[in-house]
């Protein structure tokens, strides 16, 4: 059975901690032998262990790889220079006879399969000096040009034994799978079909990989950048603490902001209250203002959500001034769930707030619920101008073009309505070249019992709740009201797929060009990751599941192929790269949250294209270096005689369509072994109305 599947790290750790000490030899044997069983299959990969790319300029020498490969102009010039150095030692007849062979062999460093050709993927063998050659081709080369072998490699073993021994030489250059030797690798249609495109597995899901960038967080609900060219990331925990992460991956020991004594948060699994949102002012670099959205209890014991303005400390750029808080807006919450939580700034410079419908189930408030009632702030998208004050004393202005400013039956703050509980919205940066899509606001709206949906927000739009859920009727009477005039989702899915949508981002980064134009989001309860892409002709959105966990696709150093199940939020950094936050135990007090960055293993941007120079930041607090969980786990299984390089063959998990590579927790069931001290809280959470998921 062990030979039929990859053995996950956690299984090895479990075996080590549960088996008697006398089994240490067996475990050592297991970890030594597994790498040879699970030889990594060939896949596009360069000698720097990263994906291939499209060179930005024409390659003069290794031109066969100028559309997709592992060489830029500098590398191409370097190979050409080496070629001519070799040819200086060869007579004119040798030029004609051997020049093509030598060029082909040298240019394999540019092949999109270079790592496989040079055995860089195989953890059991050293890197080759020469690429893997198919036997027939190798025999021809040796017959015509065996005297050139000493010029191509400085490997003494090859030089001394193989110049005159064709069979031995070609056996040394042989690789296990004949499909991947040169030149067969160029002729294999399966290997070259859609080369450089996002990989689809047999289940027709996109194969992406992850790198872990943070861990040990208590329900990380958001990650944001200040757009101040420092490329710092600000990560907020549900309990009310914001941490600063520097571009080198380290975290500052002292938090940016700590208001956990004010924030209403509990250890209950799935409790939706807490610190929920944060956004930096568009002019933060100049005015130091940012805004937060959180739950709290006022002096009358009423539960409310509060949106506040704060400023950065005048003495430390990495600390907020907690005494600068200025209340912008407070809304009473009639129930403990559906608190909304998104705050962001649009391209127009105005603040957008996304509130829940007030909670309970089915929006039972009033004749047709809060969401359809434009005279209340719940169940809405609100738009305000925080750079001024209203004549009536409110600490903000109403934009003159808000859609309902002239409607006496509507509050002027309302920008859109019919919202149930939008959890995570984002602004599209637009295509990096054409700017198409720039400024669109995407949101995930959590459903009731049947459907989850993704919406694009438009001014004055009615998003249907509680008349509709997804594309279908929820309240039959309201649904058939001729005045409903609702805006349909761009996508909706049923609860067989997931039960609590987490809105994501349109990828507009630089490092993974294949992902441009994909809206990537997930589901909190099922752990699925999904991508949507718009058909430019029909303007309909096509859905594709995302698979993470293929060992073949993610066999790059630093990449991982599993993640914690409960997807809380998504984020993009200052350069536009995409991340998501997840936890294995969704309690605001459980430090099991991690942050992952998406990586496309099929194609990267050309070297140098995505470089940025962060503005230096003066740091007064101690830096805490990042330690990946995978590194911590690997340390547990470094038995005598086993190296980290050997362990590469054992650290693999299967790719499950649309979900994490771990056991499924169906129906929002709690993990079998909650952290110590959490069992009583877990039993309370089962009866809690929010236990289905963080955003239910």
From TrEMBL:
Domain Folate receptor-like spans what residues?
58-194
Q: Bias regions of kind Low complexity — which residues? A: 664-680
Q: Which portions of this protein are annotated as coiled-coil regions?
A: none
- Residue numbers spanned by region Disordered: 659-696
Pfam families annotated for this entry? Folate_rec, GSDH
Compositional bias, Basic residues, is annotated for 681-696
Q: Name one GO cellular component term.
A: extracellular region
Per UniProt, subcellular location reads as: Secreted
Q: Does the keyword Cytoplasm apply?
A: no
Occurrences of domain Glucose/Sorbosone dehydrogenase (ranges): 217-543
SUPFAM superfamilies, from UniProt? Soluble quinoprotein glucose dehydrogenase
Q: Which residues form the signal peptide?
A: 1-18
Keywords of this entry: Disulfide bond, Glycoprotein, Secreted, Signal
Annotated transmembrane regions? none
Spell out the InterPro entries in the cross-references: 6-blade_b-propeller_TolB-like, Folate_rcpt-like, Glc/Sorbosone_DH, Quinoprot_gluc/sorb_DH_b-prop
Record family assignment? Belongs to the HHIP family.
Q: What is this protein called?
A: HHIP like 2
Organism field: Sphenodon punctatus (Tuatara)
